[in-house]
Amino acid sequence: MNDFNYYAPTKVVFGKGAEQKVGNLIKEQNCKKVLIHYGSGSARRSGLLDRIEAIFDKEGITYVELGGVVPNPRLSLVYEGIALCKKENVDFILAVGGGSVIDSAKAIGYGVANEGDVWDFFDFKRKPTACLPIGVVLTIAAAGSEMSGSCVITKEDGGMKRGCTTDYSRLKFAVLDPELTMTLPPYQTACGCTDILMHTMERYFNHGENMELTDGISEALMRTVIRNAKILVKEPENYDARAEVMWAGSLSHNGLTGCGTDGGDWATHKLEHELGGMFDVAHGAGLAAIWGSWARYVCGERIERFVQFAEHVMGVEPQETEQKTAEAGIAAMEDFYREIHMPTSLTELGIAPTEEQIKELAEKCNAAVRGNLGKVKHLDVEDMIAIYTAAK
C-alpha cells in the first residue's frame, strides 16, 4: 500500500429537486456577482436555467450569463468568459451542465484569478496559484469534474486538448439531481457511463501495491455502473439507475478509487485526448474505442491485475491460463460497450486516421505527457502508434 493524501472538499446536495437549494448555496459563498455558465441550449430548453434565474431574482442574487460550451470545451470561449468576468466584476461561477461546462468554468476561474495567458497552465509553462470559486448544477453524469481538481480544454489552433489539475479548482458545491439527466440522448448517457468506468479503471490498472479496501470499492463501483448502464438502455427514466450512475460518477473521480495505489495508468485517457483534439469525438465513445487495444497491448505486464478485473468485475470464470482469463475479461468489457451501443474501434467511432495522422496523434500525445505515459507499461511513441493502429 502506498501513502496517499485524500482531499474532497466539495459539498454535495443530492436528490430530487436539489436545484431548488442553489440560492442558499450561493448565498453561503458571500459573493457579489455570479457568472452562470452553460452549454449550447439544452439547459435553457429544459427550463432549468429559467428556474435558476427565478431563484436568483427572488433571492436578490446578481448575475450575468455566458452559454455556448460544447463537448471538448474550447479555449476561445474561455477567453470570452475571462473578459466578461473581469468586466462585470464576477466573483463566483455557477456551472449549469456537465463536465465540459465545469471544465470551461474552471479554466475561466483560473484566467480571472491569475495574470497572463490562461493557456500557459495547460501548456506546462506555469502553474496557477488561485481560482475563482465555482459551484455546479449537474445535468450529465460522466466526467466527475464536479468533485475533482482536473480540467481539460481544447485549443482550436493546432487541435490541442490539454489538462490542468490543481486543488484550487475544486468546487465549493455540487447539486446532483438524477432527474435532470433523464432527458439525455441514449448515446450521451452511454458515453457518460463509459467515462465514469474509465475514471476508476485508469486508477485500478496500475503497477504498484494496492489496498484491499480500495480495490473493493473500485470493483463495486464498476459493477454498479455496468449493471445500471444496461438498465438505462431499456429504461432511460429509471430514477434509481440514474441515481446510482450519478453518484458513481462523482466517487469515481474524486480520488477515492486511487487511495493507496500508485495513481493509476491514464494512458487510455491521454491517447483519447488526442483523438478528441484532432477529430472532435465524444470523450466517452473515444475511450471505449481505444481501451480494448490498449488493454491487449499491455496486459502481459500486469497479468494478475487483468485476471482480477476479469473475475471480480466482469464475472469471468477462470480459464486454462491467466492470459486467457485476462483476454476473456477484456472481451467481456468490449461486449458490454457494444450492449450500450458504444464503439470498440476507431472505425465504429466513425473515424479512419491515416498512417500520417496516427503518427501525429502519437507524437502529440508524447509531447503532452512529456514522454511519461503509462504505469502498467511505459509507452513510447512507437507503442502509441501500435495501439492506435490496432484500434482501427
TrEMBL record:
Its EC number is 1.1.1.-. Keywords: Oxidoreductase. Pfam families: ADH_Fe_C, Fe-ADH. Signal peptide: none annotated. Residues 9-178 form the Alcohol dehydrogenase iron-type/glycerol dehydrogenase GldA domain. Residues 189-391 form the Fe-containing alcohol dehydrogenase-like C-terminal domain. It comes from the Bacteria. GO terms for molecular function: alcohol dehydrogenase (NADP+) activity; butanol dehydrogenase (NAD+) activity; metal ion binding; methylglyoxal reductase (NADPH) (acetol producing) activity. The keyword Oxidoreductase applies. PANTHER family: ALCOHOL DEHYDROGENASE YQHD. This is NADH-dependent butanol dehydrogenase A. It comes from Roseburia intestinalis L1-82.
